[in-house]
From TrEMBL:
Pfam families given in the database record: MFS_1
Organism: Qipengyuania xiapuensis
Signal peptide location: none
UniProt topology in membrane: Multi-pass membrane protein
Alphabetical list of Gene3D superfamilies matching this protein: MFS general substrate transporter like domains (1.20.1250.20)
Full protein name: MFS transporter
Similarity comment text for this entry: Belongs to the major facilitator superfamily.
Amino acid sequence: MAEAVAEKKKSAWKVLGLALRNRKTGFMLLFGFASGLPFALFLGTLFAWLTEAEVDLETMGIFSLIGLAYAFQFLWSPLIDKVNIPLLRRLGRRKQWIVPAQVLLGTILVTMSVLEPKSQLGWFSLLAGIGAFASATQDIAINAWRIDVADDEATIDILSTVYQMGYRLSSLVGGAFGLIIAARIGWPETYALMGAILLAVGFVGLWAPNASETDADVATESELQVRALRKAGELSPTVRNRALALVGLLWAGAIGIVLAFMIMSMTYAPEDRPNPTEFTLNIGPWIIVATIILPALIAGWLASKKAKGEHLLTEDEAPATGGAYALDHLYRALVLPLVEFVGRMGWSLVLILAVVLTYRICDAIWGTFAYPFYLGELEYTNDDVAFASKFFGVGAIIAGLALGGFMLTSIGRMATLLIGGVLAALTNLLYADMAMGGANMQAFSDAVGFTYLISQIPEIGDAELAKLTITIAFENLAIGIAGAAYIAWLSSIVSKKFSAVQYALLSSLTLLVGTLGRGALGEMIENQGYYDVFILTTWIGLAAAVLVCFEWYRESRGKAAAGIVAPEAGERVPAE
C-alpha cells in the first residue's frame, strides 16, 4: 500500500515536471497575467487615480459600470468562436483575437496616461469602456485557447492552475504595486508602464502555440460544421431556422437592454440616470433567463428531436448559398454550441448548473463587503488591510493554487474540487469568529507563533493584525485550492469545438449570480449582522460540496460506462 502511494506521488511529480517544461505552460502564465492586469487597472486602481484627480463619487460610480463587460461577456462570445479577422486569421483561431486585444489594451493604457481625468473625462471614460470590452474579449479567447491547446502533457488541470497564478500575480502588480509606484512616479507614468507591459505581452504572444497544425487553415472546422448541417440525419433547415429566430430575438433583446442601460448611464443627467442596483436586481435575472435558460430549453428540444429521429433530413442537400448560408452560420455560432452541450449532458446539465451556481457564490458575493467588514466592523486601518489582504493574502492564494495544482495531478480533479469546496466553506467560520471578536483566531495565532512573527514588522505589526492576517491566509489558501479545481473542472466539461461560447456561458453564470446576490446579502448584514451571514455562507458552501459529490458520482458512472476503469489522477478527459 505504501509503495503504491509513493509511486502515485512520484507519478504526480513527473506530470508536474513535464507540464512546467512545456512552452504552453509558460505562455499560459503570460496570458493569465495579461488577462488579470486590465481588470485590476480598470476596476480597481483606476478609482485611486480618479480620487486623487478629485473626480466626484457619482461619476466614479458610473465608471464602475464598465464591469458589466465582464459579467455579460458571453453575449458576444459566439463572435470569438465563429468570426475570423481579415489578415489576422493566419495567427491562429484564438490568437487572432488575443494578440490584437492585448495591443489595443496597451495602446489604450498609454493613451490614458497622457489625458487628464477631470478635464478630459469624456475621452477618459470612453477609453476605459473600450478597454473593458477589449479585456473581456481577450478573456473569452484566452479561456478558449487554454482548453484548445491542452494535451496529455500540458493538461487542462495544470494550464488552469498556471492561468490563475498569472491572473493573481497581475492583480498584485496592477493593484498594490501600482499604488506604490504611482506614489513615487505619478499616475500617468504608472499607466504608461502598464500599457508598455501589455504591448510587450502582445508581441511575445505572437509565438504562442496554436491548438493544431491546421488551426490557421482557410477551411476551418467551423466551416466544416456548417456544411455538415446539410447532411442526411441532421435537423431540417426549417426547424433550425425557427429555433435560431427565437434564440436570436432573445439574445438581441438582452444585448439591446444592456447597451441602452450603459448609454443612458453615461450620457443622461445625474437625476435621470437608471439605478445600477435596481437594474442588476430587477433586470439581471431576466437577462439570464433570456440568454441562457430559454435558449438551453430550446437547445434541449432540438437535441431531443434529433435523438428521436424527428424533423431530420433524409438525404444530403446541396451546400447552402446566399441567405440560407448566412443562417446556417448564425445557427452554428449561436445555437449549435448549446445543442451540443445540452445533447451531450442531458439531464446531468441540471446538476452541473447547480454546482456552477453554488460552488463560488460565497466568494463572488463576499468580495464587495470585505473592506466594509475589515475597516468598518473590525476597525482595522488601511495599512493593516493592505498588508493582510494584498501582500500576505496574495501570497497565500498563490500557495493555494500551487497546492491545488499538485492535488489535481496526485489525487484527481473531483477529489480536489470536493476538498477545496469544503475548506472554502469552513473558512467562513473563521470570519464568523472574527465577527464575534476573534478570540479563537487570536488564541490559534498565539499558539503557533504567528503573532510573534507579525509583531516583528515595524510600525504596524501587533496581535490584532496577526489574527486578521492568519484568517485571510487560511481563506485565500482554501480559495486557491478551490479555484484551481473549479476552473479545471469547468474547462473539462466543455467541448473544444465550442469552447469559447460554452465556457463563457458557464463562467458568466458564476459571476452574475454573485452580482445578483449582493443586494440581498447587504440587506441581511444590515438587519442581522456579519456573524449570521458567515454562518449562512458556510451552509451554502457545504451544500455546494454535497452537489460536487453527486457530480463526482455522475462522472464516475460515465467513465465506467465508457470503459474507463481507473484513470490516472489529473488525467484530462476529452470533452468532445
